[in-house]
Design goal:
mainly alpha; Rna Polymerase Sigma Factor, Chain: A; 9 helices; about 70% helix
Length: about 170
């Protein structure tokens, strides 16, 4: 089943359409939310809630537009709210209940040991830099560079001025 078919099924009340969307967007959504929240478990919860919420909001979705950016904006907005609600800054050295640091979680998703060795220092530098940002700045960086959104799209989706978006990106 294709994405447009899954959306049509959801709009007609068939929950089976959700499975296709989950398989297609879950990984990217969890990664984006993890970058903003800095807690994999909380990011998974945010994404799960977003998937459940789109079932009731699917009628608001314009089928002429791509689904991915619409859904990922919902995820990022929810992740940003969660990060701001927590207002806690986790050290990259702090271990979770699973015994892994946030850096370990990001590195665990790499393709193999060679890639980890080659990109380890770069990843660590990026994560350290993200760790220093506010939740709003992290969300702006994820939207711009991870999701590839333009500044105009970011401004429209966050109800902020283009100048505010540029300031967030520049400050980051």
């Amino acid at each position: 089943m294709q994405e447009h078919e899954a959306i049509a099924r959801l709009k007609h009340g068939d929950i089976a359409g959700l499975d296709v969307l989950v398989r297609q967007y879950q990984y990217q959504a969890v990664r984006a939310a993890t970058l903003v929240i800095r807690d994999r478990t909380a990011a998974e919860d945010v994404v799960q809630s977003a998937f459940l919420r789109i079932v009731s909001r699917i009628h608001q979705f314009d089928s002429q537009r791509p689904f991915g950016p619409w859904f990922l904006r919902i995820v990022l907005n929810d992740a940003l709210k969660e990060a701001q609600r927590r207002e806690r800054y986790t050290s990259l050295d702090q271990t979770s209940d699973a015994g892994m640091t946030p850096l370990d979680l990001l590195l665990a998703e790499a393709c193999g040991p060679e890639l980890i060795l080659e990109q380890g220092e770069t990843r660590e530098a990026v994560v350290n830099a993200l760790n220093q940002l506010t939740p709003l700045q992290r969300a702006a960086i994820v939207q711009r560079y991870y999701l590839g959104m333009s500044e105009a799209e970011m401004a429209r989706d966050s109800a902020a001025s283009a100048g505010a978006i540029k300031l967030r990106l520049f400050g980051a």
